[in-house]
Amino acid sequence: MDRFHRTDPIPPDSINALYLYLEDCLQPLFAAAKHHPCINLIGSSGVFESYAEVIEREHGNSFDLNRTIQYSFNRAELMELIERLVLSSHRERVETAGIIAVRTDMIVTASLLTRFVIEKLGISAVMMSAYSLKEGVLAEMDRSHIA
Asked: What would you measure as the largest C-alpha separation in the chain, in angstroms?
């Protein structure tokens, strides 16, 4: 994060540098996607919880992570939120209901990564799962011991 997001709001040259870095680092993902195309992206907890909470609060709805196992995003609405977050200042993010303090700064880089992957892979549907990757791996490991 600190490698690319040093000033606020993040300048276009930093965004371009991050995108070049992601283009290089994510080559295995893009190669795999050529053989196994995907149109869905599932974000596991973290910043995707913040996206969902911000959107729901902006609609005047309550959002309880303890009761929300999954959340389906309106793609256009999510992309608009991502754009606002990328262009926002630190203070604007602090004042945004639904963004917890620990995510105030990292959400910009995470949003750029999210946008990059969505656009690069042509993702049309985005969801949030309250379960993290490690919980999924543990569940899969547990399932293999049962069989």
From this structure: 52
Cα→Cα distances 52→1, 57, 85, 103, 131, Å: 22, 9, 13, 14, 14
| Region label for 45, one of left (φ > 0), alpha (ψ between -120 and 50) or beta (otherwise) | left
79 belongs to a structural domain: yes
| Cα 131 from Cα 15, distance rounded (Å) | 29
- Give me the domain span that covers residue 45: 12-146
pTM for this prediction: 0.88
CATH of the domain at 82: 3.30.420.150
Q: What one-letter code names the amino acid at 143?
A: R
Tokens of 65: 């992570």
Q: CA–CA separation, 110 vs 104, rounded Å?
A: 11
% residues pLDDT > 90 (the chain): 76
